[in-house]
UniProtKB/TrEMBL annotation:
This is Probable cyclic pyranopterin monophosphate synthase. Keywords: Lyase, Molybdenum cofactor biosynthesis. Homohexamer; trimer of dimers. Substrate binds at residues 88-90, 124-125.
């Protein structure tokens, strides 16, 4: 979660866990004494679709409207509201969000880069941006993806991961 930089050092032990107190109660990590640093995280994920649906998205021919523009807005909104959906996640000042879509025959990949200057990282924000952006794509194309029984046998969100995380002193 944002605020836990244990991944910057050795693996955490039970004694190092910071999201619970001595009695096992959940708590937010105190980052007040940490110095402000410039931070960047990039996450990516894919949505698997029928090839004709991918072509319709690429050519902006989906009935509901501009899928990519709507997914970008959804991704950015999710980044900005991550602290409201992930327990114990700090509200951080987002200084930049970039979204990028890439196409293959039956896949759309979304990458979300998030930048902040503060006391804690932004990888959860990048992950939230990717998952929400891909969910928006699914929502906008679901009528084209449904089979005769109303299911989605060719549709899936996959491989959501953090692919870059950097921190530099100011």
């Amino acid at each position: 979660m944002s605020g836990d930089d244990s991944e910057d050092g050795p693996p955490a032990t039970d004694a190092d866990l910071t999201h619970t107190d001595e009695s096992g109660e959940a708590q937010m990590v105190d980052v007040g004494d940490k110095p402000d640093t410039a931070r960047r995280a990039v996450a990516r994920g894919t949505i698997r679709l029928r090839p004709e649906t991918v072509a319709a998205v690429r050519n902006n021919e989906v009935e509901k409207g501009d899928v990519l523009a709507t997914a970008r807005v959804g991704a950015i909104q999710a980044v900005k509201h991550t602290w409201e959906t992930i327990p114990m996640c700090h509200q951080i000042p987002i200084t930049n969000v970039d979204t990028e879509f890439e196409f293959a025959e039956d896949v759309i990949e979304l990458s979300v880069a998030v930048e902040t200057t503060g006391k804690t990282g932004c990888e959860m924000e990048a992950l939230e941006g990717v998952t929400t952006g891909l969910n928006v794509v699914w929502d906008m194309v679901k009528s084209a993806e449904k089979d005769g029984d109303g299911n989605y046998p060719d549709t899936g969100i996959e491989s959501v991961e953090v692919v870059e995380k950097t921190k530099r002193e100011l």
